Amino acid sequence: MDKIAELSGMRFGVEIETVGISRKDTVSAILMVVGGEVRHEGGSYDKWLCIGLNGKKWNTVSDASIGKGNAEVVSPILTYPTDMPILQNVIRAIRKAGGKVNSSCGIHVHVDASCLDGRQLGNLAKIVYKQEPLILHALQISQSRLNSYTKPIKPSFIENVNKYRPKSLEQLGKLWYEDNDDHHTEHYHSSRYHGVNFHSLYYRGTVEFRWFESSLHAGKVKSYIQYCLALVHRAQTVKFAASKKRCFCAESAKYDMRVHLLRLGCIGDEFKTMRHFLLENMPGCASYKHKPEQKVA
Hints:
Helix content is 40%, strand content 16%. The longest helix is centred in the middle third of the chain and has 22 residues, at 118-139. It has one domain (3-237): Creatine Kinase, Chain A, domain 2. It has helices at 3-7, 23-34, 84-96, 118-139, 143-147, 155-164, 169-176, 199-203, 218-237, 253-263, 272-279, and strands spanning 11-19, 37-42, 47-51, 57-61, 70-74, 78-79, 106-112, 196-197, 206-213. It is globular. Strands 1, 2, 3, 4, 5, 6, 7, 8 and 9 form a nine-stranded antiparallel beta sheet that branches. It contains eleven helices and nine strands. The chain is an alpha+beta fold.
């Protein structure tokens, strides 16, 4: 089946951290794309929101992790691929209005997990854990982000997923929280600060991917979202996922990442930009796992 058709209807949201212009100016840029009206709700996050002509709410709020003069753009629930052009036009409008990003800014992608059970979510954890060395290198995640907001998956969590094989969300939660936590609905629970955040399942019903350095490149943001959707779809449809962590090999890294993307079904023109961004930082050759030996004349 065509991959676009397979991912069609999947719901997602995105949070894009920006600097450069005020939250008011950011939401005004969004208004130029989606129409509707702008409101200032204020509060501890100094929320500005744009209620589009279709009734969907785009928020801009403050984020203490970025510093002064920031605007975190929080999209409404969007559907792939229908709403992707709108999101990309919003990103372009914010950039045109003067929005920027810096090293303190990140992007978080939320994928609706309401149709996934504990086994499928366990598959997702194992798929990511296996490919994590490739993923982290492809995305060029800074060490400071890895140490704080985007920690790798804990090996002990994967060991327990393999051992106990959770079938329900509740069973998975006991492994994620290490069976000693009753604060699953707290927004700022410490377990949220992982590249793949399963705490979000219990807080808002999504899997949150926190890997990404922020960008106002519409094609790059689309690529990140496509990759997250493809990972979740793969986890939902496979019967079994291996979890043995791949060793990063500079000679074969680009080939290994290409094969990973092919197994996710990310082929064709729709995913051409995604393949470009996920392969551009990888050493090696996309066509060969090992460099062919030169023939001596």
